[in-house]
Amino acid sequence: MKGAAPGAVRAAAVLLALAALADTLWHGVAEPGTALAFAALIAVGELARRDPGGVAGPQPAPLGLAGALAYALLCQNAGLPTRHGVLQTVAVVVAAALAGIVPHVARGRGPAADHLARRVLTVAFAAVCFQPLHTPGGFAEPMGQGPALVLCLVLLLGLTALCDAVLAAALAAGRTGRPYCPLLRDELRAQLGIGSAICATGVVMALGVAVAGLWAVPVLSVPLLLTQLSFHRITAVRTTYRQTITSLARATEIAGYTRPGHSRRVAALSCAVGRELGLSQRELVVLEYAALMHDIGQLSLVDPVPDGATAGLPAAEARRIAGLGGEVARRTGVPVEVAVVVERQADPYREQPVSARIVRTVNAYEDLAARPVDGHRHPGGSLEALEQLRLGTGRDFQPEVVECLARVLARGEGARVVPVPPG
Predict the structure, then answer these.
(1) Which residues are within 8 A (CB) of 352 and not within 5 positions of it... i.e. 6 or more apart?
(2) Phi, psi at residue 316, to the nearest 5°?
(3) Which of 236, 254, 371, 399 has the most CB within a 10 Å radius?
(4) 342: closest CA among 371, 321, 314, 369?
(5) More confident site: 29 or 244
(6) Of 108, 95, 85, 118, which is closest to residue 43 (Cα–Cα)?
């Protein structure tokens, strides 16, 4: 997935966009008023888009995508048949999306090309599938504008959402190198959230314009616009929350209990292992918070652990420190799942949740790899640390987690900090 498939998706989107723009310029715009109305809606949706930081969210511009889907599914305008085809639909979406992202590009925060590629191919898929329903003598003619047509539109949008999830997972796999199946599962889960609101708005808007005309566009856009603004507020709160937890985790470093950057390295590597194991987005967020706070219990110690390395402590002492950390985590108001992972990180791995197994393994690797030899960090520390972890599998560490850690390290993901998008 990392090479050919994402490149093919981007190339197909570019070729389709160029063909649509050329065809529309050559033949002219059918029903320019309708095209302008939906183009304005899509552009406003792009202008209202905000990236949550780090990695873009699953639906960067919900209002714009809803407007694009509505235009692709539009068969009538105030009772009169529409005449725009698939290529004009794609051309209007591309032109409006480009116009909407200009201010973002000017501020240096333009969306990735993958976002536009997804938009072009998803809308084209919906328009192509809708043509047999829209054309005279097609499947929709005996249905009229009744419940049967609505049901067909809902089923069509379900297929469109699946197409969008497949494209998004393919592009993300090529961009990040993560396994495809967990990415596809995350994208499908995201479609059940705001994705369902986007699809519902697209269907209602297309049906509303068919009956009431273009006046239905601004009226039906308001609920989704308010939802999008609320979504941005929630994302901002979660981002601030993560920053607060990160600052709290640094308390052990400032107090001299752990090495500088230890908690961030453990969190980044734990999230990479969690992705390799196929954890969901919510599970990754819990894992990241727990990994950031995994050493917080050391603040309760009178005598610091040498170098903050808890991996070599006796089991009873390690569990005592982990229990203290869980108690501190609960008092900070983090989710209960985070505190459970923190306090159970030193338990026998067969009794731990998956996130605690990951934190325990990665923390042990970090401690072992950083262990000084003759006052200096041994150049082969990483390999030796992995070998020691493998020797401890079946007793202290889960074999699958250790092997996932080895694959992540082989790809070099342990050398960079990749934050989990708030979610």
Answers:
(1) 344, 345, 360
(2) -65, -40
(3) 371
(4) 321
(5) 29
(6) 95
Q: With CA atoms as reference, report the closest residue to 345 among 416, 271, 295, 280.
A: 295
SS (H, E, C) 86-130: HHHHHHHHHHHHHHHHHHHHHCCCCCCHHHHHHHHHHHHHHHHHH
Looking at residues 110-126, what average pLDDT do you find?
Answer: 83
How far is the C-alpha of 347 from the C-alpha of 242, rounded, in Å? Answer: 26
Beta-bridge mates of residue 377: 372
Helical segments of 250-335, H only: 251-254, 262-277, 281-292, 315-331
Helix, coil or strand: residue 75:
coil
- Cα separation, 70 vs 108, in Å, equals 30
Residue 81 main-chain phi, psi, to 5 deg: -65, 145
Residue position matching structure tokens 């069509």: 156
Is residue 32's pLDDT more than 50? yes
* The pair of three-digit structure tokens given for residue 378, joined into one six-digit string: 């041994």
* Contact assessment for residue 32 and residue 88, using Cβ atoms and an 8 Å cutoff: no
Q: Per-residue pLDDT tens for 256-299?
A: 777 888 888 899 899 989 988 888 778 888 999 999 988 888 87
- Provide the 3-class DSSP secondary structure of residue 81: strand
Average pLDDT value for residue range 356-368: 88
Pairing status of strand 376-377 against strand 76-77:
unpaired
